[in-house]
Amino acid sequence: MNSLPTPPPSLNKVRRVLIATPVGIYGGAENVVLSIAQRLGERGITPIVAILRPGPLESRVRDLGIESVHVFPQEYRWRDIGIQLRSIAWLRDIIVKEQAQLVHNNHMAHLIGGPAAKWAGVPSIWHLHDPPDPSDGAMGRFQKFIPQDYCIFTTPIVQEGWRDISAKRPHSIIYPDCVSPESLRRVPASSNIRERYGISDAPFFIQISRIQSHKDHPTLFRAMARVLEKYPDASLVVSGEPTDVAQQAYFGEIKNVAETLGITNRIRYIGFVPEDDLVNLRREALALVHAAHTESYGLSLLEGMALGAPVIACAAEGPRLLVTDGENGLLAPVGDFSALATAMIRAIEDAPLRERLKVNGMRFAETRSVETMVDQTVAVYNNVL
After folding, report:
1. Phi-psi map region of 47: left, alpha, beta (phi>0 left; psi -120 to 50 alpha)
2. What is d(CA 292, CA 212) in angstroms, rounded to the nearest whole number?
3. Where in the chain are the domains?
4. Relative to the CA of 17, which of 65, 152, 335, 365 has its CA 20 to 30 Å away?
5. pTM of the full structure
6. Average pLDDT over the chain, rounded to whole?
7. How far apart are CA 291 and CA 339, in angstroms?
8. Does the pLDDT at position 46 exceed 90?
């Protein structure tokens, strides 16, 4: 099913939408749904946001001017059935109290939001950002059996991964074009951003992602080791911090890789970073590098382009949707650290290339409209009701 026509605000059937998101940190999937929530008021719809774990995301949502924000007060694991049942009851009470007409579940929030919406007697939408992840185990497989009235897939790749659902349920593909170049460029410059994050004056690359195994930090670290053989003063800045047991284990593994390669002193781990600081780090970086071996889209690449940062990526499915090699970015084969290192060295040595990537990247980012994404989502809301 393709995107649906969007009625004017006066004809919207939906007036109050609850958006449920599963984690308390800010990432690409959260960026998508918050970009939607932030703009619903302009379309005559009141957003209510429910965050299923505590964390810094709450303050981010409130800073956007969203008044109705609810946070489940306890950290937990998805496999803790007792807490899951309590969180379902908690969310059902919020749906009823806030008089939400439908529930928009962001990714894994479907585990809680689907049953809560059913219990409250309102329809639910499941917004999927990635294909199924085998590491989610039984809990991941269980998701598809939870009732939903509609699915939003962010790309055809995601839809194909969940084809057993798309074959049975109404659905749309809505690209997650939630980047607003104008808003990013309005962020004030920070003259001491390097000093605050302990980054030297030498050129640095930056990786902005969650600490997850499919982001393939080891390939990036091996590429960086090659770069350092030729440019020993360069460095790599890694954002993100582990938020669960699996991510903590992976974080330990990648640190061991860096130590084995002898490049620990050239990698700066900066953890969770406020969005305004990320904007300024992208501005300062020689290039943004994304080595993921699977990626359904690549919002960090699009944000980098919007700010004029050259982008370099491994050619997973999502980056290939955004990057034309040699025009608005550089691509290397997935898992090929030697080719990735070659691209990074080209970015250091070839100033005209960097300028071309910057100009074309900024031009490309302007073609991806957040307003279109929001209008298509509102059309889904009206269709569901």
Report:
1. beta
2. 9
3. 9-177+369-384, 181-365
4. 365
5. 0.76
6. 92
7. 11
8. yes
